[in-house]
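Hey,

The postdoc asked me to send both predictions to you directly instead of through the lab channel. I've kept everything plain text so nothing gets mangled by the mail client. Protein one:
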Amino acid sequence: MTTRTNKAAEFLDLHRPGDPLLLPNPWDQGSARVLASLGFRALATTSSGYAASLGRPDGSVSRDEALAHAAVIVAATDLPVSADLENCFADDPGGVARTMALAVQAGLAGASVEDYTGDDDEPIYPVELAAERVAAAAQAARSGGRLVLTARAENYLHGRQDLADTITRLQAYQAAGADVLYAPGLTRLADIRQVIQADDRPVNVLAIAGAPSVRELAEAGVSRVSVGGAFAFAAYGALAEAAIELRDKGDYGYLAGTATGRQAIQGAAAIQGAVLRPVSARRPNGDGDLHRRGLRAHSRLRLDPGFQRVVRGRRGLAKRRPGRVDIRAPVHWHRRQRHLRAPVARGRTPHVLRCRSPRGRRQLAVDKHALQHREPLRGAAHRDGGLLVG
């Protein structure tokens, strides 16, 4: 399994001047999987997009909510994930360090800290305090793990169009230990070039209206391009337009765009080993009698937070009396091989478990990495003559 340190190193290695990492920002598990299926190499959470998914404005999410959401995005795919942690939900450096330590525990490959205070009267921290906050975040990001720390200078998002001060801040954040520098809101290519030339760290640019194209940013030496909450708001915009059309016109023009969305979800589901079909009471070929409860009535296998004990104790598993099954990894049935097998990523060795079914003992091969994500999939579904438990 890839360790946190290796995951962070992999993420940092993707930041290459002139060949920028395109870093999309999912807002939930489904959008994360769609983006992964489309070939993106890393993901980042979005504070505004996640807040929108809760029906709230940006800045209204708590630290616990943000970290729990980040863990969901981490579990959704095998890609490195960086978290938008706003101002780390604290003004003092100690509070920033605590948030960053929790981010390490969440399994993230990266995280950001910004110098926006949340106070419209004094929106930006003084540069000295802001640098202390970055230093505290950097120390915590390297203690007990490794995170790629992005330091954000928020001047341009809050009415302070001061390039010189922005560069001064980014230089201070670099000296404090930031791995990546980010000044969201910059749109002039000349300004972006000045930021890159003034600093020795990879630079992220936010893709917003008026910003240069990815090709132009690459030529300028940008290392990363992110979209913030734009994808989320594009999705919610499409939802609102479809709903308004139905409400006001009674038409169904919105159906024209559903094929693309359905295909995207099917592509993401195929990668994850999931099937978007109804529950089946019996395998179509009649081999076995696996009811709607899947294997729940026929095995005591539990792949939950205690799954490591199950893995180590697998030899005696088949002798246990019938009980509950809680499959926590994508699993599908192979008719001919007569065993359950979870998709196993390249280079990983599956762990073989055994359990009882109505037709006797079956073999369950699961990707340990998928289990560690502890992602519950429930029910049983069939496709092409096969049964999926998950």
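Protein two:
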Amino acid sequence: MGRKSWFVKVNYYQSLCGCRFSKGWRKFMKECKVEIGDICLFKLIDERNFVFNVSIVGKNPLAVLL
């Protein structure tokens, strides 16, 4: 996808000690053609603004075995 950017809201749940993507995630998935089973790598590139470089590396070859 090159250098295109998407705004994706991330909700943090302290009770679960985790986070979840919300607003904007579906648009990102659709435009980048992310499918169930795809592996996405998130590299933090700006800690202050919470900006990531995302690489979609394709399907997990082990997923077929599960």
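Summary for protein two, as requested: Residues 25-32 form the longest helix (8 residues).

Thanks,
C.
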